Request: fold
Amino acid sequence: MTSQIYFQTTYDCNLKCEHCFQDSGPGKSDTTMNAEDFESVIEHLPKNGTRLNLTGGEIFKNMNLLWNYLEIIQESNKGRGEENQIVQVLQTNGFWGNQSQNKIKEILKKLQKFEVKKLDITSEDRYHREEGLKTQYLENIGKANKLGKYVPTIGFRGAGETKNIFPAGRGQDILDKENFKYNMGSDCKGELNDGSPTIDPFGNLYMCCFNMYQLPGNIIYEPIEDIVKRAKGDRELRRLNSYGIRSVARLNGMEEKEIRSIAEKHGDCGLCAKLNDLI
Reply:
């Protein structure tokens, strides 16, 4: 079974978008994971095949460190069988598309060298545009990579309007907490079964990409299998993994009528936000 891990390597970003659930932004380089700790994390990933989504913050802000990360993954893959490779997906706002085609192609060739399989460009929305990120930058990257010449797949997406963002970080300041609805379909269910949690820049693990429900342990210092095994012994985490957030709400004494009301109005992720005092 392939693990799918979301790895936030930094909260440092060139932009300060008002909807950012991480509160990422400029001047946060001290949150960036160094290469030594990154190598430890890679050593402690599942030994089966892993789809690793590297994200920030903005991982391309420190490109030299990014190349170090990718080199570490490439070296790790040499010791893995063909079916157990770490497949690399890089998430970016695409700010580096503001350069000439030759400069962009140099970056894409580097990604090709390190066998990056996909670029996930997540800035096709008004929040990033308001921070000065131009649609042309994204088009420039797509043009330079025409027909998957360097990176096999480039995806473009963005955040929804205010009612469809998660109420954490700066998102809390702009959210209509009475009317928002956010639902990722109980993605937290089963995360412990295939070893697919989220990792933050400090090596902590969580049940989802919004850093809700921390697991007991740190992947810099021990294998993910050990952390997941310990998490399965925790009553609340075990319930979340097996049955989802509504079951956790029941465990915490919430009445069924209130659970249904919140979930119908705000979605299951909204229910999670309520349980974690975000709304």
